[in-house]
Amino acid sequence: MSGRRSAYADQAKAATREAKQIASHWATLAGAEHRPGLANPTSTRLVRELNMRITAGLPVCRHLTGGPGVGFWVAWKPERMRCARCAHDVLAATRGTREDGRCDGCGQVVDLIHPTLLQGGSVVAILGLCGDCEAGR
Ligand SMILES: [Zn+2]
Ligand SMILES: [Zn+2]
Q1: Tens of pLDDT along 67-124?
Q2: How far is ligand 1, taken at its centre, from the CA of residue 111, in Å?
Q3: What are the tens digits of pLDDT across the range 34-71?
Q4: How many domains does the chain have?
Q5: 3-state SS class at 113
Q6: Cβ < 5 A residues, ion ligand 1
Q7: How many other C-beta atoms lie within 10 A of the C-beta of residue 114?
Q8: CA 60–ligand 1 middle distance (angstroms)
Q9: Is 81 strand, coil or helix?
Q10: Helical residues (DSSP H) of the chain, grouped into ranges
Q11: Which residues form the domain of 40?
Q12: Which residue, among 125, 101, 124, has the nearest Cα to 114 in the 3D structure?
């Protein structure tokens, strides 16, 4: 039993490592900033919301049910934790739409949205913030 538990811990550790790599890799691709910590009140609030959802039993996509893996949380589609592929589908579906310019902090539609990635443990949160929310104004 302890063997199984440590295998789980190893998997969880590997998932955390992978999440870190993915977050910085995606950040490079998207021109987004990868922030290991919490930089502004809006991000802090959204992460708190995410934690509450996880505690309440946030559903996961069908690809994530097999144990610890990297989970992606897209702030504008917050009802589910997703695998990389499903998260990518959400991003692709949003691109070029009006929702693409909507700030996840204040809900305003702006011309320039700042894609932001936050990584904690094996979870990568993807946010789009307006200039004001991004700067913590
Ligand atoms: Zn999936
Ligand atoms: Zn905003």
Answers
A1: 778 999 999 999 999 998 999 999 999 988 999 999 999 999 999 998 888 888 889 9
A2: 30
A3: 555 456 889 889 989 999 999 999 999 999 887 778 99
A4: 1
A5: coil
A6: 61, 63, 83, 86
A7: 17
A8: 8
A9: strand
A10: 2-30, 41-55, 84-94, 131-135
A11: 2-135
A12: 101
